[in-house]
Amino acid sequence: MMKGELCNSKLFQKFFSIVGSLALIPLLVLLVPAVGRADVGPSNAEIMAGVQGRLYNAGIFKHGQVNAQVTNGVVTLTGTVDSYGQEMRAVRAARHQHGVIGVIDKIQVNTTGVSQQQILKKARYEVLTYPFYTIFDHITLRTQGSRLILGGQVTQPFKKSDLGNIMADIKGVSYVQNNIQVLPTSLFDDNIREEIAERIYGDPLFVNYGNQANPPIHIVVDNGNVTLYGAVGSKLERQKAAIDARFAAVYFGLTNNLRVAS
User: Which of 157, 182, 207 is the last residue in one of the domains?
Assistant: First the structure.
């Protein structure tokens, strides 16, 4: 090998060595963590802006005024809305914001000018117009101040959930206590329901009741035990409904809670 060729060979080796070292630098940067660098979550200001946006998108400001303050990821909600349902929507909206680790609910429901009688009247209307409310369900309603308490029985879990949500949106309701019982799923109970309903509403005495949008005699069956609820026009009708039910099907027990409407 000539002297010049030897020099050129050494120069090429040195060049490729330098290039190889440079190629490793990005890889080393990826492998070695930066000193003092850490993942930083959203700031309190960013969280507050996000919460306010979610409150707006949820339509909360159509039903009152809700303010949010953020300290170390904890959101405190204050203000006034017109129903318990809107209060719960505001809380859910805040909880879904990225970076929120907790929500303190200090929202108040405005109950001014709404009486217990108005709440009950609206609640009864909502029950009767609920499309899945049938003669095999029975709902009771009562109030404690601005608190609405639901009771009774329904045949499906979604009915309990639906009715609770509907009642929460009634203006002036500050809290909903949902004590509705979901009846057990049972083919035996289903057969009893159908047989008693056919016998009662097939009775000429109750034909007019059966043609109503909301028939007044409700048949609740719980593990083979039958209870009649609702209102009829006379003592005779109350007694006849119980007789029809008694001879319609095989069951364990019958309770007649029908009342005579004044």
Answer: 182
